[in-house]
Amino acid sequence: MPDAAPRRPARALPGLHRAPVMWRLPLGVLAGTQAIWLFWWAAFHPGLISYDSVMYTWQVTTGNWTSDHSVLYDALVWVTLHLPGRFALLTLLQTTAMSAALAYACVAMRDLGVRARWSVPAALAVAALPPTGTVVVFVWKDVPFYICAVLVFAATARLVAGRKRPRLSGRRGLRPGSVRFDLAVLTVGLLGLGLFRNNGLGLALLASAALVIALPGQRIKLGSLTAATVLIPLVAQLWLYPALGVKQPPSDSVFALNYSDVAVAYQQAPSLFSPADIAVLERVAPLSTWQQGANCHSADLLTNSWAPFDHAAAERYSGQLMGLWTKVLKQRPDVIVGARICRGHIAWAPTSDRGAAGATTQLPYLGTPADLWGWASPASTGDPKAGRISPNGKMAGSPYLPDFATHPLSTTAHKAALWLNNLFRVPQLDWLFWRGATWCYLIYAALACYAIGRRRPAVYALAGLLVGQQLTVLAANPVESYRYVAAPLFIGPFCLGLIAARRESSGTAPVPAPENRSDLHREHPDRNGNRAAGTAATRAPQSVRL
Question: Any stretches that span the bilayer, and where are they (predicted)?
């Protein structure tokens, strides 16, 4: 029988066959995820709003810039408020940036041997599922933080895979595919972690430290990069922002978690408190408020509730209150550590504790109240004695109030988006869709399977980002909000593909995707030294099959 004609690989992404082979996967993922996010964007146009969104707007439109939130994101809000589209433009740019980050992650997974048949559905699922799809259209500093986390993860994977990946000729400078490009992406991601979230410095440090350990040949370069990406946000927070007139957050905001530790200690070890110590507590809030704040799951029950709590007095007596905290730490460190572990429950526990107050997973609110959480209400409605931080109508009469209203481009899409979000809020599946800790453990298991099965321990560097996420939230966390540990929800689906990743042939390294289609038709010598033209079916490496 005559030999059958060589079979051409099926095109999983029609319409991209004219693009260079190395660009088909990222362009296809970019287009697919962007199309899905356009649905979310149209459904919640111009974007979803939170309490923090209104605060950002008030700060940048009234000159009350403070560094309690991300100053960089405040600047982005200020810029978009002066451009056509305003919030709609900002949220649209967020969806595009996340789509590009997911496309880059798919390329990184391909370098580790994960076929597109696994990575592409993972990227599409991240865009389609409400826990990750909806949050990207929020006006929230957490969104660029998640984008930077995906970039750090993908750049780390590229650098780890590059240890056994031969360099392509012509891949020099900052062109995509070069090591310098991956280092540049890593730098941008690490800087973003520290600039978009105040506790992101610890995460960036641990993520880069894991990479330094995994790549001994690049320790000097990576160490210098780590130092720069950690020092720049630190210098900005301590010196640059104050020099530009940005106010530092008040002490009662900085030490709110310490005050909650004191409340827990007052309940569990009251013998530590002398009459003078109790007098200090009463100057700030009644003892009943301190007893209410003894719930270790939520710091807001003490400093941000309807119970009386004098924030001005807390700032005046911050030195004495911190002295109490230091006293408890020296005599009963177990109480402090236990309170932090309890409050960081969202970081390490796959399930929430529905039997305890404040221990359930806090999910984002998709509606916008008429008074904008008090920002647009009359000033007299705020209770000055309540500990709850009330804006007392600071945005009343603002010309930017219409920008907070939801104007969906499609009523049908809006109803469908709300229905999908309600569907995914079923309590029994909270552990799977909303708990980042669950995905952290799944990622660790997938990395272990890949590292042991393929004898590539360097891949454990990918866990540095997740370990940093868990430890930083465990060390300092106010409430059990899902968004504090949401980065693993974006990364986890990609890591599951590592379990089914291709194995390398004995003594050979994985071949990178060719730079363009002409690479598939170059002449290759046979065993006798004769040169024969290769074909796309017979010479193309497996990594280019989509």
Answer: 21-43, 87-106, 118-137, 143-161, 431-452
